[in-house]
From TrEMBL:
It comes from the Bacteria. Keywords: Signal. GO terms for molecular function: carbohydrate binding; catalytic activity. Residues 1-20 form the signal peptide. InterPro entries: Gal_mutarotase_sf_dom, GH-type_carb-bd. GO terms for biological process: carbohydrate metabolic process. This is DUF4861 domain-containing protein.
Amino acid sequence: MNKLVAVALAAAAIPGIAWAQTPSTTITNDQLSATIALPDAQQGYYRGTRFDWSGVITSLKYQGHEYITPWSEINDPAVSDYAYRGEQIATGTSTTMVGLPEEFASLPERTALGWEAAKPGGTFVKIGVGILRKPDEQPYDHFRQYEIVKGTQWEVEKQANAVTFKQVINDADSGYGYVYTKKVALVAGKATLVLEHTLRNTGSKPISGFVYNHNFMRWDNQTPGPDYAMHFGFDPKPADPLGDTPLAYNGRTVNFTRTLVGKDAIRSLPVGFGNEAGDYDFRFENTRLGIGLRATANQPLYRAVIWGIRSVFAIEPFIRYDIAPGQQFSWTNTYQAYQLPYRQE
C-alpha cells in the first residue's frame, strides 16, 4: 500500500490544466476503470473553494463507454459560474469540475462553517477544502474563490481497487475542526463504485449542514436530450410549475422533451420523497448508448435538484447531518453501471 501526502493547500487563480498533467491514480476491477485526481495545491485538477478536493473522478469507463467527459472547454478565473463564449463554455475556478463531485454547506444559512461569525480578515471553514479567509462583508458565494490561508495536508492511501483520502482541520479562531475520510472503491466482481465517508467533529461547535453530489452526466460526450432518462425511487412531482422547461414528469421517470441547445437551461426540484434511505435511488439511462448508472445511498434524502445546460445535466441529491462535538457521521454512496435493460441486483 502506497501512502502519499499532498502539498499544503494554497489559494490561486489558475488557468485550465490538461488532465494528463495533473496528479492522478487509476483503480480497476474486471468491469470498471476509474481515474481519480489527487489533491495538489500546485498541479491538482481541482483547486477551487467550492467542491471537496478528495475523490475527484475524472474518468469512469464501462463496456467501452466513458461516463465522465468534460462539459466546458475554457477555465477562466474571471468567470463566476459558467459563461457562453460562442460555441464554447467557460467555467470559473470553483466550477471547473466533472464526474461525481461533492460539496458541503452549513445550515441554516447554507454558507460555510463560521462564515456568519467571522469578521473581514477572519477565518471560516469549508469542509473538504480547508480554512479560508473572509475577505469582506459581501454575502457568501460558493462560486467565489476564497483565499486558503491555513491549509492542511491530505493523506492518500492507494490500492489496486481503492483510494482513501484523509483531511484533518483544526481552526482555533472559528472553533471548528474535523477529521474527514473518504474512500473511493470498486466492488470485486461487480460494475459498482462506492464512496464511503466519515466526518468526525473535533471542534468545540456543532457541525450542522448538508452534502450533495453534483452527478455531472455527460456520457461519451453526448448532449442532454431525449436519449437520456432519469428514473426515481419515489413518485416525483415538480415543486414548481415547469413552464417551458424541456422536462416531462411521467410517473417515476423524468424525460427531456427535446435536445438542449444554445443557452437552454433546466432546473427543477422533484419532491415527494420520504424519510427512508430507499428514496435516495436514481437511475440515469441512455437508450442510444444502451447503458445506465444507478445512484443510491444509505441515508435519507434532504433535497433533490435536477439541473442542466446543453453540455451536461444532473440530479443532485442532498444528505443532511448534525454532528455534535466529539461525534461523527458516516454515509455511503453507491453507483452501479449496467447495460439496458436494467436488471435489479
